[in-house]
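Lecture 7 notes: from sequence to structure.

We start with a single chain of 475 residues. Read the sequence below before looking at the structure.
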Amino acid sequence: MDTFEDAVLKTIARYRLLNKGEKVLVALSGGPDSVALLLALFELRAWLEVTVEAGHVNHLLRGSESDQDEDFVRALCARLEIPLHLSRIETRQPGNEPRQNLEERARRLRYDFLLSVAAERQATVATGHNLNDLSETFLLKLFRGAGVSGLSGIYPRRRNQLENGVTVDVIRPLLDSSRSEVVEYLDRREQPYRQDSSNRDVSFDRNLLRHEVIPLLERRLNPGISRTLGRTAQLFRELEDFLSPLLDEAYRQCREGKGTSSSAQKHAGLALRVPELLAHHPFVQKEIVRRALKEYRGDLKDVSYQHVADILKIAAGASGTECDPGNGVRVRREFDLLRFGGKKPSIHFEYELSLPGNVYITEVAKRVSARQMSSQSACADSTKSAVLLNFAGNRLRVRNRRAGDRYRTGARTRKLKEILIERRVPRSVRDELLVLDDGSQILWVEGFEPNPDFRARPGSSPALEITVEHETFGL
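Now the structure, written as tokens:
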């Protein structure tokens, strides 16, 4: 057995990447790493008792080069009699766009194809990420300010759950092997491979690390820097595996609702309770914030240490302060809650409500209905979605708040803004509350008791029932 194949076999055993009888779908680009992985697994298939297949995506990005890659992969799989699953995807979109955006889309499309094929074939996806990829990823995350999970680098195994609920594992059997060992193995096998010329472009961060920074570190500090960084990433993986259950529980205890999701919480976005958050150790605070960002965004791509620090600064600040950590996320402290939400455009709406009748408020997706009924049916809790008003007119105005609005809830009329602050109504939903007025004064504000001058009382004349479907929240 070749020494390279032996190293791959040991990596598979060390991380328990494959079981007897499994199908393995190799992500085969035609480059040295994927070709070496395919050959090694092909030679080890009897030892491992696995079936080897391959998947290739032609992104149609490099003209004849892309077609030559496809031809090479076809010929290699035909020679080895390995089933090949191939897809041609028009990846480039009309217009100019940054190269990094294009590469990210290509990566997403490639994984979508591989995972779908693997799900259909009940296979595990194997990629050619090697020790050098691991060290480059570690340095990239380190320089950008990642947390423990980021510094864990590339995992030997990742489990992916598809939209249909099927899970597919992605494994990296070359993670303990260096790029030079890959090339030496191919040379011994006299096996050609394809080279992507764009991998030499040092205007990309990873290529700069690969061709200039890491070679300098090897010459000046440590000839085995890639293996050293790989061991360091492994220590971070072990640390994350140990801490994750504890940090997950701390996050659940800080999350508003602790996993439940009322319609109000869904509307207002994810929130953390500030007192519980700040009671934790600073390290735990950071990890809680990272988990909140991941739940809200779906990933932690481009989330840096500074983003997390900015959010914690908001948590320690006054109510009403906010920050923008990027990717369309806005974080605001609202009293004792730290809310994660999207950037909302300012809204201004005003509709006429005929009595009886109903009107749909497009801007906030609420329907307001009005009908005459007996005041004997008055709700015990008038702050819910139905209120009874003593109003004899034939139309009302439904709008959101305006600067200078005044509203009577008790013995005196006060500024509506002061009432909202006093009742601790989150700023993020204040502009979405419905306000009913008759053109001269406010009869009712959604979520509050009616103006006493218009409140229907038992024994009075027939009352006007106002109902709201999809209220913002109940106070």
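The chain has three domains: 3-232, 255-342, 350-469. Keep this in mind for problem set 3.
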